[in-house]
Each structure stands twice: as structure tokens, then as C-alpha cells.
Amino acid sequence: MNARRTLSIVLLLFVAALFAFHLEKNSRDPIVNGKRLSAWIGEFDIWRGPTAPGVTTLETSGASAEKLLTGMLRRRDSKLKLKFRELLSKQTWIKFSFRPAALVHEQALNTCNLLGPRVQGTAPAITALVMDYPQKAANSKTAFHALNTLAVMGTNGVRSLVHTLKHSDPAIRNRAAQLLGTLRDSGSDEVIRALQTMSKDSDAVVAQTAATSLELLKNRRTLPASSTDLMRATRPPGETPASVWDVTRGTRIVSTSPLYPGCRPEDLFGASLSSVGTPETGTAIFDDSAPDGFVHFVEWETPSVVTVRSFGLIGAHETALNGFIRAFRGFRLYARVEGAEKFSLLYEEDAPVPYGFGYCGSLLVRFRNLSSPVTARHFRVEFIQNGSGVYHGSRAIELYGFNAPLDAPLIGAALENQEPAIRDGARRALGDGQ
Fold this sequence. Notes:
This protein is an alpha+beta fold. It has two domains: 163 residues, no CATH class; 202 residues, Sandwich (Jelly Rolls), CATH 2.60.120. The chain is built from 14 helices and nine strands. α6 packs parallel to α8, α7 runs antiparallel to α8 and α8 runs parallel beside α10. It starts with a helix and ends with a helix.
């Protein structure tokens, strides 16, 4: 009898605490488009891409999402909470539904990956998920998911990644050092000093990774300014030039480095011949067995000489959940003019990883004017692989060559063959000076 009374009192106290928590939770969990914001976060399926239900709602949720996400990221399954859960499961008066903290963290991190710098106030809570591993959070998958998500959190994320270099696990330190070598905002003195310290780390792998990242930051070229107001520029009446490298014009592949099984290099020039059985069909994906920094390439020729004055390149990597696989951290464009023995460099640029635009910041868009026109038949493009391991072969979606300077109608016409999400992301990137 006394045991039953004690259990009843404990349950009543817990229910009262749960009710108080419910009132506080709802104060930071507003109703958006007919249901709680937490419900939209819980239903968001990052695997479904930009067409997943709730994407638009979450992207416009603003500060409310940041506050709610922070609370979700701070959740922990303590021993006391687990004991309460066990007690509640033994009673039949009230049915309770509990979500494990690991599931809540995954949902919050996926949404943070979608919103990026718009919720960079969550960075401290995301950092805590990394630093709590393994003592307070035993899930390594969550720790690395959180670490990768910091890479899309803007300057707050960069500062947090520097902090994670102090982690006791060398695998965490190694990944943080990798990310700091390719992030858009990681060239600060603080990052340089931190990586210099890590280059003397007791773990040889971490020390080498830090040294490599320092070299990448040292060699990084400043991203060139895009042509002024491309998306607002106008072209005199007349036909908009198409890509001179499009396969419909007779472009022929001459040589390539190894590609992912089922992929065809022609897809880089407007074809859709690849057959890989995934949504990646229609893109050029390179072999997965290459090491970090490997230079993938494609060489091609046109039926007759063409003049190229500008070009465009579209690429996409995976989300933070998958560690930004399929990325390249730089590219180079070459031409071999008639009669020449070697290719000459036309253009080169480093690419930050993560790229920073489109769905979950995974889209790269580069449209550039060449410093001077080039007339040739033979061309080559190189992609520098970022990272190594399963599914790290670089992915390129499309490469365009134009015989006119860039302007909005030209770019708009080129993007018409892309999916709506890519077109929208490209316009956003170009509007932000990419």
C-alpha cells in the first residue's frame, strides 16, 4: 500500500511538472499555418529535398524557430528522466508519448541545416552536443551530425568549430580541422592560430589534417566579384546565346578520369544519359575511390572552333547529415588553341565547402566572364575532390560556355533546363554576388 501511495505521489508530481513544462514549451512553440512549429520540425524530411513538406514554412519561421530549436538541442535523456519514463510505463491512467533525445536532436539538426545562418544563434547548443560526446551523449552519429551542421552556421559556426578542436576524441578534432580548411568564413587570425596549434597535435592524423587546412587557407584565392547586377542587366533585342559546349551542338568527349558506375560525362553538357538508379541521374559524378585532393577531369572538343567569352558551372554536394559528400573545393578551366601542344589555363577558382546556397546550402553556382575571349576546339575542366571515402567522388551538374558576356537573359535561358530548386537557388546566389 505504501509503495503504491509513493508511486501515486511521484506520478502526480511528475504530471504537475509536465504540465508546467507544457505551458512553457507552448510559449516558445507558436502555431504556424495551422499547427505547432515543433510539428513542422518533426515532420521535415531532409532526404526528400527542397520539395519536402514544410520547407517553405520553416524557411519563413524566423526567430521563433531559433528559440524552439535551441530548446530541442539542449534536451538530454538523464538517468532520472529515464527512470520516470519507466515508472510511467507501468501505470495505465494516462498514456504518455516520449521521443528519445537522439531523435529530437536529429530533427533539430536537420532543420538547422535547412535554415543555416538564419538560426546561427543555435550554435552554442549545437556545440554542446559535440562536446557532450561521449560522456553525456553517447551517440557518435549525433555528435558528427552536429559538428557538420556548425559548418553551415556562418561566423558563429566557425567560432564554435574552433572550440571543438579541444575535444578529447581525435576523430572529432580531425573533422573540425578539415571543415575549417574549406569554410567560407574561416580565414580569420583566430582560425589560423588554432590550426597552427593543431598542426602539433599528439595525434599524427589530426596534425596532418590541420597542416593541410592551413595550406588550403594560405593558397585560397579571393572569390572574384561577379559581373555587376547580372540578374538586373538587360540585353538588346535578339537571340539569347546558348552554350557552345552543349551536346546538341556536336560536342564530343575526348577523355575523362574514372566516373561513378553508370555516369556519363556528356551529362555535364546538357545530356541526361547517366543511369545510377538515384536522383543523381543526369549529373556527372566521379569515381569514389580517389583520395582527398585528387584532380578529376573531363576533356572535350567541339565540331569546329568556337569563341568563349564567359562560362557557368553548377554543382551540388550532400547535406550536413551526410558530411557534404560529393563536393569539390576548386575547379580549373583550360583550352588548347589550334596548333598548340598543351592546354592553357583560362580560369581557376576555389570553392568553399559547404557551398552555401540552395537547399541546405548545398548548391554551387558560378557564372564568370573570362578576362579575354578564347577561340579553340579543345577544352578541359578539372575538379579538386574534397575529402575521401565512400561517396566522396565530386559531382558536377552542368558546365556552360558562352560566346557573349554574361547578363540576366543569357543566364536565365541557360538555367531553364535545370530543376526549379536549382533555378531558384542560382538566382539567390547570383543576387548575393556569386
